[in-house]
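Researcher: Go.
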Amino acid sequence: PRDGRRNRAGRRNGRRVGMKSWRFFVPLLAVAALGMLLATGLREGHDPRYVPSPLVGKPAPDFVLHDLIEGRPDVSKQSLLGKPYLLNVWGSWCVACQEEHPVLVRYQRKAGALPIVGLNWKDEKTDALRWLRQLGDPYAAIAYDFPGRTAIDFGVYGAPETFLVDAQGMIRHKHVGPLSAKIIAEEFESKVAAPAGRSEAP
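Model: Structure:
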């Protein structure tokens, strides 16, 4: 009987040791799996910040908004048809937009630059206008979307975000995060002359 008790105690101790070992190894396995996924993505050239949009390859949502600057005509999908443009979502409250803004100002001075249409999102008008006076205005037009309904229709969930809309009003590309000169050239300008069927390549 004493040997039987020892055997049962040994089995219980063995199970405890096994459970402790698994508790130690499970987090290690999770970290290793995450590392493999990241490594695979980097090897295949995928940008971890790339966020696919279900609207890419589809018509831009219809919208009509007042221009942020009084006296200018309303901004709408219809009024923008006829030439490709960048739709840039921004707000004066957005820290990342401050990083991006000088890039937009410099880009608009470039010959042959795509027009940039601003979508001023959930911003106080006085703050937005002060921002433009202080930092410069790179926008051909600025749709003022204080309620945020148009941004919702475009699937916006943060700022800055930028869409490439072609001359027919189709969304060709979307970038989440601040733009750089390299991103504009590689992700947007390169797609203007690309066949429509290839516009979704990351």
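Model: The longest strand covers residues 85-90.
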